[in-house]
Amino acid sequence: MPHAIWSGAISFGLVTIPIRVTAATEDHSIRFHQYHLEDQGRIRTRKYCEIEEREVRAEEIGKGYEISKDTLIAVTDEDLAGLPLTTAKAIEIAAFVPYSDIDPIRIGEGYYLEPDGQVATKPYTLLRKALERNSKAAIARFAWRGRERLGLLRIKDNAIVLHSMRWPDEIRSPESLAPAPVELSEDEIAKALALMDALATDDIPEDVATDRYTEAISDLITAKEKGKPAPHAAEEEAPAGAVVDLMAALQESVQKAKASRGESDEHATVHELPKKKAAAKKPAAKKTAAKKTTKKAPAKKPRRSA
User: Fold this and answer.
1) Are 129 and 39 in contact (CB under 8 A)?
2) 55-69, 247-261, 280-294 — which is least confidently predicted?
3) C-alpha angle 64/167/1, rounded to 5°?
4) For the segment 162-206, what is each residue's pLDDT rounded down to a tens digit?
5) Model-level pTM?
6) What count of other Cβ atoms lies within 10 Å of the Cβ of residue 304?
7) What would the 3-class secondary structure string for the chain be?
8) What's the pLDDT tens digit per position in 201-227?
9) What is the pLDDT of residue 174?
10) How do beta strands 90-98 and 63-68 pair?
């Protein structure tokens, strides 16, 4: 496991749990350097002072907030460390909510929390088991890297995971992206559901979870290092164009999904959903001499489109 990147405590009511924080993920991406095409010299970023017109060292650089073109408010590390935040060294649990109710778009990077010392083992295990029993996640506040953040604590195997979360005002509304309402038949929906069933698995397939891009980049670098031609993918036929027959495309997709699993095509046919039976008509009532006065039902208001 990597070294701890932060240490503090979980504040759970009057219970304090000393913890260490380690990264839960790691990046295996292949990184490139920039270089000068003419002589292959490395291109580097240098810190440059506009007034003195010279490169400056790291110890000469400070932080500041520009409130106008000519006014800069200097903010030091001591200023930030002295902010009146109780979460500077603690992850304060404020509430427990159903994990299924949390919008995944708000969940950020994950970090493992481990008990710091023998005294923290029992309260750590208590909190972990309590989260397991009620299927809820803890919402917390914590200060890290110069600002207070919103966090989420959940369980992964036998460890507690801390996720940073977006504040509500940081989530953009998708309302303007919604397409115009369209009519869909029950048969089209049934075929789409059949395609989903044909592609359903208990876990992410191994071939899907393989980082093919990184593997392809590695093969490219190896080929160039050995002076061999760069590998290229086989040319695929361009798509015919926009899908005109949606039903036929769905049906063909179901058949291909079934065939990829070695299942017979005869089971790939999707049958129409049974149509709702029309209500039996009641026999007409006998006419009477006196006419009944019928009241008109109030007109229904049109539904607002999503």
Assistant:
1) no
2) 280-294
3) 85
4) 999 999 999 998 888 888 888 888 888 888 888 888 888 888 777
5) 0.66
6) 5
7) CCCCCEEEEEEECCEEEEEEEEECCCCCCCCCCCECCCCCCECCCCCEECCCCEECCHHHCCEEEEEECCEEEEECHHHHHCCCCCCCCEEEEEEEEEHHHCCHHHEEEEEEEEECCHHHHHHHHHHHHHHHHHCEEEEEEEEECCEEEEEEEEEECCEEEEEEECCHHHCCCCHHHCCCCCCCCHHHHHHHHHHHHHCCCCCCCCCCCCCHHHHHHHHHHHHHHCCCCCCCCCCCCCCCCCCCCHHHHHHHHHHHHHHHCCCCHHHCCCCCCCCCCCCCCCCCCCCCCCCCCCCCCCCCCCCCCC
8) 888 777 777 888 888 888 888 888 888
9) 87
10) unpaired
Residue 238's pLDDT band (boundaries 50, 70, 90)?
low
CA of 198: how far to CAs of 86, 184, 189, 258, 259, in Å?
A: 52, 21, 14, 6, 10
| Tokens 């015919």 sit on residue | 240
- For residue 302, the model assigns a pLDDT of 41
Sign of CA dihedral 122, 127, 25, 149: negative
